[in-house]
Each structure stands twice: as C-alpha cells, then as structure tokens.
Amino acid sequence: MRWVVRIAILVAIAGGGYLFRDRLSGSPTELAVGDCFDVPAVKTSVKDVQHHPCTERHTGEVFARVTHPAAKGEPPPGDQALFVYLGNTCGPLFTDFVGPVAAGVGQLDAGAFYPPDAGWNAGDRSITCYVYRVDGQPVTGSLKAAK
C-alpha cells in the first residue's frame, strides 16, 4: 500500500511540474519552441530564465531549436563563425516565425542561447533561437505571425 502512495506522490509532483512549467524558472536549454520567458539582462553566461505564459508580460519567445553540425571534439566556434551560423540558421526561421513584414520593420530581433565552452566540449551543440523587442519592452501574446 505504501508503494501506491509513493507512486501517487511522484505522479502528482511530475504532473504539477508539467502544469506549471510556464511559471517556473529554469535553464535556457529547457526552453521549447513557443515558450515565453524574460530575456536575462546578462549577456554572458545565462544559467536561469524565468518562464511565463505567453498571455502574460514577457520579453522573449522561442521560435527555433537547432543543432550546430560541428562534430564532437571540435573546438567551439569563434564569435564571427557563430554569428554567421546563427544568421544562416536562425535568421530565416526568425522571418518565418514573425513574418516578413514584422521582420523588416526593425522593432524585433533574434537572440540565441548556445552552450558555454564546457558544454560544447562535452558535446552539446543545441542552440535556442528567440525573438525579442529591440526596445526591450515586454509583450503580452505571441510574436508569431498569424498564418
């Protein structure tokens, strides 16, 4: 009987985590396409972001998750190489997500979370691309273009 109670508690904890996922803070690597969050002020190493429902005030929204094609064991790309890669991968996905008109107005831009050198050296190649307002103002609602 005790194992039934333990299982019920574990299911309740897991279910609660799933239900309240959009209100918890967590690693940028836990963000999924469509997730809304507050873009951290820190521009170096980001360990935690605050998730929000997209209907509440937020400053960023994930529009893509991509994987850098570098083989395990290759050193991290330099800033210029990473910038070119992000422009070639996240750039077109940004335009698809927000629409060509919104992308061309200059009020929105794309940012990315990518692995720190230690993560890269351990084989992590995941990159999270997100959209944000250039003026830093929060939005309520998705920035995804209506299709």
Explain what you see.
By secondary structure, the chain is an alpha+beta fold. It has one domain (22-133). The chain contains four helices and six strands; from the N terminus they run H-E-E-E-E-H-H-E-H-E. The longest helix has 20 residues, at 79-98. The radius of gyration is 18 Å and the shape is globular.
Write the layout of secondary structure elements.
Layout: H1 2-19, E1 25-26, E2 36-38, E3 49-52, E4 60-67, H2 79-98, H3 100-105, E5 108-113, H4 117-121, E6 126-133
Antiparallel strand pairs: 1-3, 2-3, 2-4, 4-6, 5-6
Brief characterization of the structure:
This protein has 147 residues and is an alpha+beta fold. The chain contains 4 helices and 6 strands.
Number of domains: 1
Name the helicity range.
25-40%
Shape: globular
Count, helices: 4
Q: Strand order of the main beta sheet, please?
A: 1-3-2-4-6-5
Rounded to an integer, what's the Rg over CA atoms?
18 Å
Kindly list the characteristics that best describe this protein.
147 residues; alpha+beta; six-stranded antiparallel beta sheet; 6 strands; 33% helix
